[in-house]
Structures are given as structure tokens and as C-alpha cells.
Amino acid sequence: MDELLYRPCVGCGYCCKKATCVLGLGSPCAYLAQHDGRYWCSLILIGAVTDEELAIGAGCCSSLNSDRQRMLREQAKSVEKSISKNT
User: Fold this and answer.
1) SS (H, E, C) 16-34
2) Is 5 a domain residue?
């Protein structure tokens, strides 16, 4: 059986935008919030559930996730700016 390729989670919100968990409300999920440059589940931020309970941050397995690629580009630009400020 082929194994799915999981890439590290970057907080792009793709999963919650495409399919909500059992606690989610609508699509995209009403609990999806942007905070500190990434998406988070508001229920986790307030301590109502844990990321393990919802499998958040487990990693991305979607080859169609263009949001993840965009987030990685933005993170790389941010690092480059930070490095150039310090040199």
C-alpha cells in the first residue's frame, strides 16, 4: 500500500478551509482565525480543545494545496528581510 507523503504543517489553513472537523461550523470553518502570521483554530487558542484532539498540525498530505506553497514563499521572504536587516 502506498504511504501518503505528509509535509510539515505551516498553518496555511487549507484543511479548515476545505473540510471542517466535527466541531467546525461551515466551510471555511467559523473558528479559523489568523494570528501571528498563520491560521489557528480559535477553539485551541482559548483552550477548549487540544491540537491532538483535532489532528491539527499533523502535516499536509494534499498535493493540491497551493495555500501551503504561498505560505512557504511568504515565510521565506520574511526570513530574507530579517537577514538583510541584520547585515
Assistant:
1) HHHCCCCCCCCCCCCCEEE
2) no
48 phi and psi, to 5 degrees? -75, -30
Joined together, the cell numbers standing for residue 49 give 480543545
**Domain membership of residue 46 as a residue range:** 14-86
Q: Which DSSP letter does residue 7 get?
A: B
Q: What are 27's three cell numbers?
A: 466551510
* Tally of domains in the chain: 1
Report the chain (87 residues): mean pLDDT per 10 consecutive residues. Answer: 64 82 79 86 88 75 79 84 81
Position 29, amino acid: C
Q: Residue 4 falls within a domain, yes or no?
A: no
Decide if 59 is inside a domain: yes
Its pTM surpasses 0.70: no
Q: How far apart are CA 71 and CA 8, in angstroms?
A: 12
